[in-house]
Amino acid sequence: MKKYLYVIFLLCTAGLYARQITTSELHEVIAIGKSYGVPESITRQLMYEESRGKVDAQSYVTYEGYYSAGLFQIYTQPDNYNYLLRKYWKYKEIDFDINNPCHNATIALHYLSDLHKRFGNWYDALLFYNHGNIATASEKTKAYARRIINAK
User: Fold this and answer.
1) Where do the structural domains in the chain lie, given as residue ranges?
2) What CA–CA distances, in Å, run from 113 to 60, 138, 142?
3) Which of the residues 4, 5, 88, 143 has an alpha carbon 20 to 30 A from that of 103?
4) CA distances (Å), 82 to each of 1, 7, 148, in order?
5) Which of 63, 91, 61 is nearest to 77 (CA)?
6) Which CATH architecture is the domain 20-150 placed in?
7) Where does the pLDDT of residue 16 fall: very low under 50, low under 70, confident under 90, or very high at 90 and above?
8) Is 3 left (phi over 0), alpha (psi -120 to 50) or beta?
9) Which of 40, 71, 30, 42 is nearest to 54 (CA)?
C-alpha cells in the first residue's frame, strides 16, 4: 500500500517541479513557429494549453501505456512518434530530445503548419492536432481550439 501511495504522491507533485520555459527559449520557439507560418498568438496559446509553458511536462492520461510529453505534448505512441520524427526532424533520431523546447517546437509547429495547409484553417488544424479526427471532436476539443484561436 505504501508503494502505491508513494507513486500517487510522485504523480501529483511532478508538475510542481517542472521547468518553465525561459525567455530566450520562448523567443526561439516563436521564431520556429513563424518560420512555419504559425502566428505568434497561436504558438503562445497552444504552448500554454498543452503544457502551461513547462518544457518537461508529461501528460497523466495514458492510452495503451503511452503519454504526451514536452512543451507541445507530442504523443509518444511509436507509430505517431516515429512518423513525426521521420517527417519533421531533419537530424538523427537519436539527437531528438522531446523535452528540449526547440526540438519539441520544431516537430509540433511544423506538423501544425502542415495541418493548416491541409485543412485551410487554424480551427480544423487544431482540432486534428488535439484529437486526430475532426468529425468526432468533442465539445471540450472544440473549446480548446477556440481558446487558442481567440487568444490575444
Assistant:
1) 20-150
2) 27, 22, 19
3) 143
4) 37, 29, 26
5) 63
6) Orthogonal Bundle (1.10)
7) low
8) alpha
9) 71
Q: Grid cell 531528438 — which residue? A: 96
The set of cell numbers assigned to 144 is: 480548446
Cα torsion angle, 99, 100, 104, 107, sign: negative
CB 133 within 8 A of CB 106: no
- In one-letter notation, the amino acid at residue 51 is S
Q: Distance between CA atoms of 67 and 11, rounded to whole angstroms?
A: 13
What pLDDT was estimated at residue 64?
Answer: 82
Q: What is the 3-state secondary structure (H, E, C) of 68-84?
A: EECCCCEECCHHHHHHH
Residue 1: per-residue pLDDT: 54
Instruction: Report the pLDDT value the prediction gives residue 134, as an integer from 0 to 100.
Output: 94
Is there a contact between 28 and 101 (Cβ–Cβ < 8 Å)? yes
Q: What percent of the chain clears pLDDT 90, i.e. is strictly above it? A: 82
CB 45 within 8 A of CB 31: no
What is the Cβ-side half-sphere exposure of residue 149, based on CA atoms within 13 angstroms? Answer: 14
Length of the chain (residues): 152
